[in-house]
């Protein structure tokens, strides 16, 4: 099998497992879901399941410890000389496009994590890993120390906060405005600072 086709098949299997896990968790509750049931619903063996996820909770929240975060990959693909906030804006816009394509499943995952502490803990742990990796990449690009300097972790936290807030507003307002527009609005505010309120354009 050609490398491109192999990677596409792997991505399809991973999506099928994550979707099956989410559907079963919504129907039965996370405690009522088993690895065997997820694998059967996705049409693969339990052994294949463990090639993609370490546990049923990881599948429900769609977290794979062995897979590099797409956020990190998107940031690393940005030009080396791009200002950090601009690079993070592009990274977040790429994430927003993926979110918009998978909005319903992402919202269900978010609500399940709010209702079940074990899922929230796994999700938060993975998110912390990704945030650290992003801060390390910003530190590398700027020649700063990720542990001794405040800038790398701060600019990453602000960028991820912008994504979180834009997504929340998008969902709460019925997704009537493009998510990309809300992301841009959030980043415009970050770039301008918080001394003044930036009002949405009337155009």
Oligomer: single chain
Major β-sheet annotation? none
What's the order of the H and E elements? HHHHHHHHHH
pLDDT < 50 stretches: none
Mean of all residue-level pLDDT scores? 90
Question: Proportion of β residues?
Answer: under 5%
Counting structural domains, the number is 2
The fourth-level CATH homologous superfamily of the largest domain is: Tetracycline Repressor, domain 2
Number of helices: 10
CATH architectural category of the largest domain: Orthogonal Bundle
Shape: globular
Overview of the structural elements:
- By secondary structure, the protein is mainly alpha-helical.
- It has two domains: 1-64, Homeodomain-like (Arc Repressor Mutant, subunit A), CATH 1.10.10.60; 68-193, Orthogonal Bundle (Tetracycline Repressor, domain 2).
- 71% of the residues lie in helices and 0% in strands.
- It has ten helices and no strands.
- The termini are far apart.
């Amino acid at each position: 099998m050609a490398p491109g086709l192999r990677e596409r098949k792997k991505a399809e299997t991973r999506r099928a497992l994550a979707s099956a896990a989410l559907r079963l968790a919504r129907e039965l509750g996370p405690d009522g879901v088993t690895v065997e049931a997820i694998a059967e619903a996705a049409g693969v063996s339990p052994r294949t399941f463990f090639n993609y996820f370490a546990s049923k909770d990881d599948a429900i929240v769609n977290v794979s410890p062995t897979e590099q975060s797409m956020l990190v990959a998107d940031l690393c693909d940005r030009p080396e000389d791009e200002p950090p906030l601009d690079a993070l804006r592009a990274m977040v816009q790429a994430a927003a496009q993926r979110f918009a394509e998978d909005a319903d499943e992402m919202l269900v995952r978010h609500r399940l994590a709010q209702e079940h502490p074990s899922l929230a803990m796994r999700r938060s742990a993975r998110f912390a890993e990704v945030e650290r990796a992003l801060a390390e990449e910003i530190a590398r690009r700027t020649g700063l120390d990720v542990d001794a300097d405040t800038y790398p972790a701060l600019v990453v936290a602000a960028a991820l906060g912008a994504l979180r807030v834009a997504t929340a507003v998008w969902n709460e307002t019925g997704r009537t405005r493009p998510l990309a527009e809300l992301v841009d609005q959030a980043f415009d505010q970050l770039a301008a600072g918080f001394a003044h309120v930036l009002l949405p354009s009337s155009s």
